[in-house]
């Protein structure tokens, strides 16, 4: 590592904790080896290590990528499993772990003699995503201390599924109850065990946010604009975003709009206020958000690509990972790093949105490729034209240990006052200097 980079490692270590110095060094070197710009690499390291906390946290606070933290809870159930890891047969222990804020699955890589009902304090645990949910991991490098049976109260499943605002429904919830208004609703036929079933999908909202829903049961008398109170709906997670699932165990009540309700169909349906990237990075996934920032870079993989006509995967030299050699379909996309001063987020734009932001159609892009006999010409042109542009994107975000990604459903160039934007940035810098004091 050169002297200049070593200085940045020292700076990051002082800010994030010297106990992480070697890990910070390795992470920064890895990012720089992949040609990530230095400032972007530093922000990525900060975002990753800021998640670490030496103090105890709760289940509802678990986010993919967290490590080195302490958590206290009860082993709800546990079972022994035989697995093969790198051709080695191993025995692991998995089950459910919970506290008064939620329940999550866990995997323990060593025999710690744990039993259902044990209350434990786990130090140096970490979190990964598994089956779209956050999962708690611990093993040899962790310290597991058994606590007295009366250390914490029994976990009341009914209280965990009790009424919540949609903003508070998270990827650790199994069941949820709430009072909401339906702002989108449509029917769809799906094939289930050889038969076709009609399900209902849409979007629920309250004054705090929105979430998608799926109903596997009829919703008689319920339509867009209906206010409903539901209990014991199942919470499913897709790409970090919770969704509400109505099934036979769900109770749904159609309610006349109360006069004192803090939201209406109109207010709940309104366009969301923009979020800072820092807020996005704090969550495993968010539904229907807007982020505004500058394009820090246009990433490799942008431009003209080819997809498999069967599964839509991106192909390499007309070869699909799932279907082998195929007659590819030409497509265009953009992979951006968007920065707003509080952090950076990956943004994915499909062909339609790419055309809108890039300012050139698929036809024009294909003509560029034919004229230059190189697909890279579109990517290089995108980098030249778009780096530094100020854009807004709206869509859903997801997060893993490699960072946050926002898959855009719409994108545009927002109107803004340059003087006001510069003033806001200077004000933010001044506040940071004062706080760092």
TrEMBL record:
GO annotation, biological process: double-strand break repair via homologous recombination; response to ionizing radiation
GO molecular function, one term: DNA binding
InterPro entries hit by this protein: NA-bd_OB-fold (IPR012340), SOSS-B (IPR051231)
Domain of life: Archaea
Keyword DNA-binding: yes
UniProt entry keywords in alphabetical sequence: DNA-binding
Key word Isomerase present: no
The name this protein goes by in its record: Replication protein A
Organism the protein comes from: Methanolobus halotolerans
């Amino acid at each position: 590592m050169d002297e200049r980079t070593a200085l940045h490692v020292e700076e990051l270590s002082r800010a994030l904790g010297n106990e992480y110095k070697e890990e910070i060094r390795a992470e920064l070197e890895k990012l720089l080896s992949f040609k990530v710009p230095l400032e972007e690499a530093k922000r990525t390291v900060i975002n990753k290590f800021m998640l670490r906390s030496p103090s105890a946290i709760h289940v509802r606070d678990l986010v993919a990528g967290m490590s080195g933290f302490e958590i206290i809870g009860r082993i709800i159930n546990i079972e022994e499993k035989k697995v093969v890891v790198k051709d080695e047969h191993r025995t692991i222990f998995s089950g459910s772990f919970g506290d008064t804020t939620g329940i999550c699955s866990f995997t323990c890589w060593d025999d710690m003699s744990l039993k259902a009902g044990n209350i434990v304090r786990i130090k140096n645990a970490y979190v990964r995503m598994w089956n779209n949910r956050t999962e708690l991991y611990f093993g040899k490098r962790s310290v597991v201390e058994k606590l007295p049976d009366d250390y914490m109260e029994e976990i009341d499943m009914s209280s965990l599924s009790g009424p919540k605002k949609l903003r508070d429904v998270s990827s650790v919830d199994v069941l949820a109850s709430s009072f909401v208004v339906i702002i989108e609703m449509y029917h769809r036929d799906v094939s289930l065990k050889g038969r076709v079933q009609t399900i209902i999908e849409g979007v629920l909202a309250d004054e705090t946010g929105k979430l998608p829903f799926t109903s596997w049961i009829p919703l008689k008398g319920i339509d867009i604009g209906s206010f409903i109170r539901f209990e014991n709906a199942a919470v499913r997670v897709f790409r970090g975003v919770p969704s509400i699932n109505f099934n036979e165990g769900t109770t749904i009540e159609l309610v006349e709009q109360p006069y004192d309700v803090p939201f209406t169909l109109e207010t709940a349906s309104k366009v969301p206020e923009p979020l800072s990237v820092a807020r996005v990075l704090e969550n495993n996934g968010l539904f229907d958000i807007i982020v505004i920032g500058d394009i820090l870079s246009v990433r490799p993989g942008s431009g003209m690509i080819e997809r498999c006509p069967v599964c839509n995967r991106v192909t390499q030299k007309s070869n699909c990972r799932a279907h082998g050699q195929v007659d590819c379909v030409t497509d265009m996309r953009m992979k951006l790093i968007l920065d707003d001063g509080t952090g950076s987020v990956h943004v994915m734009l499909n062909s339609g949105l790419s055309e809108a932001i890039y300012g050139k159609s698929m036809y024009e892009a294909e003509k560029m490729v034919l004229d230059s006999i190189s697909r890279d010409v579109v990517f290089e042109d995108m980098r030249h034209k778009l780096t530094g542009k100020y854009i807004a994107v709206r869509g859903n975000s997801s997060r893993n240990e490699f960072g946050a990604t926002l898959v855009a459903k719409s994108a545009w160039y927002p109107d803004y006052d340059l003087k006001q934007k510069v003033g806001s940035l200077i004000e933010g810098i001044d506040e940071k200097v004062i706080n760092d004091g």
